[in-house]
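Write out the bound-state structure for 3,4-dihydroxybenzoic acid.
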Amino acid sequence: MRTQVCIIGGGPSGMLLGQLLQRNGIDNVVLERKTKDYVLSRIRAGVLEQGFVKLLETAGCAERLHAESFSHTGTYISYGEEIFRIDFVSQTGTPVVVYGQTEVTRDLYAARESSGATTEYNVEDVVIEGADGDTPSVRYSSNGQQRRIDCDFVAGCDGFHGVSRRAIPDNVRREYEKVYPFGWLGILSETPPVHEELIYANSDRGFALCSMRNENLSRYYIQCSLSDSPDDWSDQAFWDELRRRLPSDYADALQIGPSIEKSIAPLRSFVTEPMQWGRLFLCGDAAHIVPPTGAKGLNTAASDVHYLFHGLIEYYETGDRSGLDRYSETALRRIWKAERFSWWFSSLLHRYPDQTEFDRKMQIAELEFLRSNTAAQQAMAENYVGLPY
Ligand code: FAD
Ligand code: DHB
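---
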């Protein structure tokens, strides 16, 4: 098979890039290791920046988002019984959009299917060859058969555990990592959200987050131990613990019900440099991970796709490779800022095992400063709604 861009990974990065290229007449093939149903069953992020929404519009995939999403003009932060709001719109003029990653992916799959572009599922043993030359190719197996795709470029959109990052030689690639000593236990429940906007909660017992997907679908998270398994947590134990971490008015208002999904995610900050090697370009979780506090994971994947898409368009329309050559440098400049924000917001809100009384006082002092200082609120809001592309 021959295509212009071979995209490895059918998560949001790969599907968004594929759809943008398809709409602009650039032929591409997506190779996905799992089934479509598996990809669509993953419950992950829920908050989109405007930049992401614009990209979905450009991709022709924003119709359902505009009909069903919710615009949030601010967020709440609590500590103990205290709670305050940061107003994104008065600070930055921009709201965020609440629309689940599952729905984004569903819309991208629907658009790809109606465009007739090729997506191969259940592929195995993907190997990238010749990325440092002019004629790269991707070998893989499917239904026991060996296949090969020759292409102009390879987009590595295969997430943190994919093969693309490791195709960049060890002596070229540098990795930066911070692993956090806790995880997030998340549940989805068909109950009305406890509040109309998100609540990020710092408590003596650890972090909690009240989020949502719609009026009758809530997403809640609590900081948990890395040694916990979702089976250790009955629904009742989860609700009891969540209540203890919220100001009492919200704890009392919380409506509970059976969980329809329960999972634990470890927290990690990770960046690989460079994000390109020859004709291979990494996008999204394949190149970087943020701890989820601040909802930047999916949104940083989108900014990578934006830069790569524009570099590819410029190349195919004018033959100019300079945008592609600068891809890693341009993308990383924004990525490191999102890494900083996610690290800062995580540090502000979680309970660390080795935290001293002094460290705890510093968190409270910083929360009180944020509550009372508009410059601090503006800095937080600018990062939360998303730095410009
Ligand atoms: P992925 O979504 O990981 O997609 C990569 C795709 O590549 C997958 O479909 C995978 O099956 C496929 N693949 C992997 N290896 C291969 C291979 N060798 N060959 C072919 N295909 C391959 N972000 C937030 O903002 N908020 C959250 O609450 C949040 N929760 C998360 C919970 C979990 C458990 C995880 C893992 C991530 C979470 N994130 C969250 C981060 C966010 O979901 C990711 O940043 C986003 O999914 C990145 O998209 P991606 O397409 O780059 O990678
Ligand atoms: C959600 C996840 C986040 O990490 C976050 O900061 C906000 C919302 C969510 O899943 O809804």
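---
The longest strand covers residues 174-189.
Residues 45-47, 198, 209, 211, 219, 292-295 surround 3,4-dihydroxybenzoic acid (ligand 2) (CB under 6 Å).
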